[in-house]
Fold NADH-quinone oxidoreductase subunit N.
Amino acid sequence: MGLFETLAFARPELALAIGAMALLITGVFLGDKAASKISISAVLLLIVAGVLVFVSPGGGATTSLFDGAFRIDAFSTFCKILIYGAAAFAILMSDRYLAGEQLGRFEYPVLIVLAAFGMSLMVSATDLISLYMGVETQSLALYILAAFNRDSRRSTEAGLKYFVLGALSSCLLLYGASLVYGFTGSTVFTEIAKAAAVNQNNAGLVIGLVFMISGLAFKVSAAPFHMWTPDVYEGSPTPVTAFFAAAPKLAAMALFTRVLMSSFPGVVEDWRPVIALIALASMMVGAFSAIAQTNIKRLMAYSSIGHMGYALIGLAAGSASGVSSVLIYMAIYIVMTVGTFAVILMMRRRGGMTENISDLSGLSRTNMPMALILTVLLFSLAGVPPTAGFFGKWYVFLAAVDSGLIWLAVAGVVASAVSAFYYLRIIWFMWFDEPTPAFERDHGPALGLAAWGSAALMFPVLTIGMGYLRQIAETAAASLF
């Protein structure tokens, strides 16, 4: 395959990279007065990249590029569409917030596009070197986004914490990758899989795998590598937090899945207990730590930790059905998260944004539509049937049971019951407490679309189309095997 023919398969990534550079140069010349136009252009760029994913020159067939370092398949296509969609909504939802906080700098949408470019590389990476390059491309943009409000002490602190701990996780990932390369003699996932199958009792290879798992667990904020999440979520600007909670989690989970399923399919019994314990710890940390939170962004941080634990249950199953359950869960999780943060961005009064859970008291009497939307989304986050969140948990628990991890599925049910308390507590505040001053209603069409659209997809639209989502996820999962 020639160079130009190879590059034709990477058109989405090329479009994002070249487009981001063009927008950055435009912003440098025009300044912040062009911030809104650059935001619209960035959204259009992400839409174009999504279209290019569908019109791959290979006709949807699995294709390996750059000597096996990059792979286009149904799995990467599924993840890229969700990543680009979440990135586009992160830009659209931020317009009013950035204007209200006087943060209308043109760099914001450019950084989102660059982060999406890195995530796109991550989900297609099939080589240890391309894996690391994708992770760092994403991370560098995210570090800047966390500290985007440079006049805020909380935002600066969030960016610094994220950078320091992110560097530590990158060191763990890189050290693990070097050990894997040292004991297998290759950086390509398929060659690593062959070497691992032959040397299943190689202690050095297992140690390298554990280090890689530790680095990747940080990227999905799974316990016990979750320590950065609450502080970064609380300190970052709210649209940035919404982005952190959605697209990067999917990209990291997809990379996690591809690494384990493509590089170490023959040593499932070695890494399954590690993933199961991380899943258990994440669910319990998310369930119990969120109970005491009074800040809704910190609560969502612990909620995301718990949800990553549920997704890791499907990965611990180590089967095609487990991978498909992870994809279903992450797709539903992204929709729930985008909708919930859209509502959080609507929590604005004349004095500015509010983040306390108590500010939602009596919301049903001051803003009934907003209360209905948040109620549906919280029910789905809790996994209450017949919302989509229930089906997401159902599929990961079913995959765990099929693989003999009954104890992990039971632990997931217990954690779900505990976490339902803090979701239902917010619903109680909204419907039964005395009302607090009303929020401003002029929040823009983008937030309304994200909130109403997410609630509609939770119940009943997405539940009706669950069979179709499962079919797509199964096709995507099958491409890994």
Summary: DSSP finds 22 helices and four strands in the chain. The longest strand covers residues 63-65. Residues 282-481 form one domain.
